Amino acid sequence: MRGDEVAVKARNPSRRPPFDEDALAVVRRAFARQLVCGAGAQGDGRLERAFAETPREAFLGPGPWLLTKGVGYESAPADPVLAYQDRLIALKPEKQINNGSPSLHAIWLHAAQIKAGERIVHIGAGAGYYTAILSRLVGPRGRVTAVEFDEDLATAARKNLAAYRNVTVVQGDGAAWPRQPCDVVYVNFAVDRPAPPWIEQLKAGSRLLFPLGSIARELHKSRFHGVGLRIERVGETGIFAAKVGGNAYFIRAEGEASTLASDDEREALLAAFEKGGVESVKSLRWRVPASPEGAWFVGDGWSLEYDAP
Fold first, then answer.
1. For 68, which of 11, 60, 216, 305 is 20 to 30 Å away at the CA?
2. pLDDT along the chain (309 residues), means of 10
3. 26/29 Cα distance (integer angstroms)
């Protein structure tokens, strides 16, 4: 769906009085509890608190808001209560950039196992909502670098995150970050292959979470496949532990990150998705020869393998 095809259905603004801050705090706590339970993360109190203490409405801009409905959007008043639904809310509808699914991010953030004091690079930060949650997870001793390609969104993120003292916002190309070793790289746009810094700046025990996706366009339709991948460096070799976290459909990368894979590599990835078996991937090899028989996919200088590292 192109930006000029966005379908918007208007509805009348609510005439009910707004919730006060105490009532909104209850709504946020209930929302956070639902998210962590849905993510299978009932014991992750730190993640639940991070969602409960972060006001999503503060990162959505002025109303009316556009909430996803089917293949388009519907207009809604900027009532903070409406932010606490598991729905995408437009940030730049003409580019189909949204504040992403809270339930999906709850799953990924739990899988990342973020610890207090860690250094995080959030790539594709949008207007900063999930950056704020990352900020709470690492605490005052940690650091979050938020990288956003879109200049308008980077400006919004700087404003929205001004009170978060452990966050730095950078307007730039996500394929060029991180620029030094870090603990977690958290990527929020789909690519056909990881950028070299995402892999090469991982130190032992560091994690990368990113959406791997492939799309094929035909005359009257397109086919899209996407999964979330968790990559962890477990030693000093070029073989990393990998775990597939289920389907994940993100907006496509912009800038250099959109040109990482050749046309042949994209076609090979699409073929791998369509033959099936991605859920059995257990390792990523980087600048290491692929195993002769255990590869789900072989790209240029990297592969995804069925064997554990």
1. 216
2. 42 62 96 96 96 98 92 93 96 94 96 98 98 98 98 98 98 97 96 97 97 65 79 94 89 90 92 94 96 92 96
3. 5
